[in-house]
Amino acid sequence: MPQFTDKYDGIYRRWCPNVPHLYLRALAGFESNSNPKSKTGTHWGLLQVGLGPLEDFNQRKGESWDLSDMLNPQRNVRVFCDYYATVGRVFASIVKLLGPVDGANFKPNWHNSEYARLVTMAWNTGIGAVKAAAKAVKVKRALAPMLSLRGPVTSVDLFTAGRALKIRKASVLFSTKKQSWQSAVVGSYKSFSKSRADAHRAGLDTTKGGNSWGLLLIAALLLLSKN
Predict the structure, then answer these.
(1) Which residues contact 178 (CB under 8 A, 6 or more apart)?
(2) Structure-derived torsion over alpha carbons of residues 60, 20, 128, 138, reported in degrees to the nearest 10
(3) Degrees to nearest 5, angle at CA 87 with 14 and 38
(4) Which one of 16, 105, 170, 196 is least enclosed by Cβ atoms within 10 Å?
């Protein structure tokens, strides 16, 4: 089972302010069990940064970081956030490709679970693969206009189209295992968000330790409900 912690929330907020810290907490849990020293092949650190995003970051920022630098949580999160900016630019091009209706889920909106899934897909499957699958969906819908009745393109649409692509490693990039993993990340993120909202409505402090008055109130209500 993935291990989650609020230990790195401050780093998430500082270095990646455009991404909900609860999402990054969920992602880190699934990527590394929230272990900043985790190493899996050429993917290292809290969010398991790989060589591709790291090399792109170095080129854009004029740095010379290597994988050992990814064991530093702050640097690890900075590389992810730089990649997220790239995802934003590619997603904007996909909206233009698909149109405002079919491409609605690619517009930044962390309240939209599909947007969160697509971002996770871009990180886990690769932004190039996401764009290729989006183009395949565009062609598929153009050949069968009635498919447009299905509404905005979803991550499921991309996985379906991706598996049919005649590209190298398509079966790996668009595997059902990856699809399930990405859905699990977003499911945990939404669960954290709901718990936080529920606690806020109950008058609890969502920081570590909670609000003692809120806890006493809930305890009293539970006792009354049993009588």
Answers:
(1) 121, 124, 125, 172
(2) -130
(3) 60
(4) 196
Give this prediction's pTM: 0.86
Tens digit of each residue's pLDDT (9 = 90 or more) over 168-220: 788 899 999 999 999 999 999 999 999 888 887 887 654 443 343 333 333 33
Domain boundaries, the chain: 9-226
Beta carbons of 12 and 25 less than 8 angstroms apart? yes
Q: Tell me how far apart the alpha carbons of residues 70 and 40 are, in angstroms, rounded to a whole number.
A: 12
Q: Which residues contact 160 (CB under 8 A, 6 or more apart)?
A: none
Amino acid at 227: N
Q: Are 46 and 38 in contact (CB under 8 A)?
A: yes
Q: What is the pLDDT of residue 138?
A: 93
Instruction: Read off the DSSP letter of residue 153.
Output: -
The 10 Å CB-count burial string (b at 16+, else e) for 144-167 is eeeeeeeebbbbebbbbbbbebee
The second-level CATH assignment, the architecture, of 9-226 is Orthogonal Bundle (1.10)
